[in-house]
């Protein structure tokens, strides 16, 4: 049972990473990176490391996403490559 | 540049999946982290924490006891790092009125 | 980003949501003895609540929550609360950060450690909350661009 959930989470992780790399809009890429971090937090939860997963979810998905958005608003919204 | 990004992603995904395949089973009592003594014959630290956390600090959540009591010097360093990051941003980026 | 949002729906929803997030942050700090969480997670949740208001109500409108000028001094206070607890335990006869040596008479060593953990978690929460909000304020600045 557990490994099925984990395979789904790993596939979601790869999909989020590909999305964050491929999207040209940097705001969408920041949101995809946030979703990536949240998936990592869910993986930690499935491994039983609840405190680590909680920290990862709060800091990675809550705070770092806001910092990304602040940086994008200060600079440019389009990726060049 | 774009191809380099994808190659990097593939390498890291490969490393992650390779490491995941070699994780011990959940609840495996013979896994290295669940043994009472390590290879050199000394007592594993987690063993002590599990046995004595509630007795020492009357706290059911032993992760809190490890973070804030047994390994509190580590947490002090963590707080100082966060404070130093805030201080660096304050000193470099804060806009002050010209005095 | 520093200007208030134009939509009343965003303002109303973010105001009520921020209170829930902050209440949960305080719960995570205080209840860290019995459930997952602790000072760092709770402080980050409190900071997330304040940052939500900073993004929707603008820099000026959310100064009531945590004034920008007060952020770094409070972070220093939180880190100092941690260090002073350790020093007090040292002066009371234990090692540095060994809460059983806190000089409070009439309390058993077990409960000294219990409440020592609580004081330390509150210090971590203060430091993390205000340091994260201060970093955001410095990144965005007071300018009217963006």
Please provide a brief summary of the model.
The complex is a heterotrimer of chains A (81), B (99) and C (146). Chain A is mostly helical.
Description:
- The complex is a heterotrimer of chains A (81), B (99) and C (146).
- Chain A is built from 3 helices and no strands.
- Chain A has 81 residues and is mainly α.
- Chain B is mostly helical.
- Chain B has 4 helices and no strands.
- Chain B has helices spanning 2-21, 45-57, 62-70, 72-93.
- With 146 residues, chain C is an all-alpha fold.
- Chain C is elongated and about 60 Å long.
- The interface between B and C is large, with 31 and 42 residues.
Task: Please describe the topology of this protein.
The complex is a heterotrimer of chains A (81), B (99) and C (146).
Chain A: H1 2-22, H2 26-46, H3 50-74
Helix pairs in contact in A: 1-2, 2-3
Chain B: H1 2-21, H2 45-57, H3 62-70, H4 72-93
Chain C: H1 8-30, H2 39-61, H3 68-91, H4 109-140
Helix pairs in contact in C: 1-2, 2-4, 3-4
Number of E-state strands of chain B: 0
Shape of chain B: flat
Instruction: State the secondary-structure class of chain C.
Output: mainly alpha
Shape of chain C: elongated
Content-based structural category of chain B: mainly alpha
Order of helices and strands of chain B, N to C?
HHHH
Q: Write the element-wise H/E pattern of chain C from the N-terminal end onward.
A: HHHH
Biggest sheet character of chain C: none
Features of the shown structure:
heterotrimer; A: 81 residues; mainly alpha; 83% helix; flat; C: 146 residues; 4 helices; 70% helix; 0% strand
């Amino acid at each position: 049972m557990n490994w099925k959930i984990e395979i789904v989470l790993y596939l979601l992780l790869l999909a989020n990473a590909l999305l964050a790399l491929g999207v040209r809009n940097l705001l969408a890429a920041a949101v995809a990176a946030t979703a990536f971090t949240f998936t990592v937090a869910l993986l930690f939860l499935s491994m039983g490391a609840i405190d680590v997963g909680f920290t990862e979810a709060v800091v990675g998905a809550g705070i770092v996403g806001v910092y990304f958005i602040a940086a994008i608003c200060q600079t440019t919204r389009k990726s060049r490559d | 540049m774009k191809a380099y990004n994808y190659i990097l992603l593939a390498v890291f995904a490969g490393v992650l999946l390779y490491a995941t395949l070699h994780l011990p089973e959940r609840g495996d009592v013979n896994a290295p982290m669940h043994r009472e003594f390590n290879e050199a014959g000394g007592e594993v630290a987690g063993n002590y924490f599990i046995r004595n956390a509630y007795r020492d600090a009357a706290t059911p959540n032993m992760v809190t006891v490890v973070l804030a009591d047994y390994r509190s010097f580590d947490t002090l360093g963590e707080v100082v790092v966060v404070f130093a990051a805030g201080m660096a941003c304050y000193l470099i980026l804060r806009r002050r009125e010209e005095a | 980003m520093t200007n208030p949002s134009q939509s009343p729906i965003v303002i109303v929803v973010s105001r009520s949501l921020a209170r829930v997030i902050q209440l949960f942050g305080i719960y995570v700090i205080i209840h860290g003895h019995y459930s997952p969480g602790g000072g760092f997670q709770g402080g980050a949740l409190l900071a997330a609540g304040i940052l939500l208001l900073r993004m929707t109500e603008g820099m000026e409108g959310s100064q009531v929550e945590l004034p920008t000028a007060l952020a770094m001094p409070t972070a220093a206070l939180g880190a100092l609360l941690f260090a002073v607890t350790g020093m007090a335990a040292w002066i009371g006869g234990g090692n540095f950060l060994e809460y059983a040596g806190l000089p409070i008479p009439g309390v058993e060593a077990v409960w000294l450690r219990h409440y020592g953990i609580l004081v330390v978690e509150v210090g971590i929460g203060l430091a993390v909350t205000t340091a994260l909000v201060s970093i955001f304020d410095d990144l965005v600045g007071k300018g009217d661009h963006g």
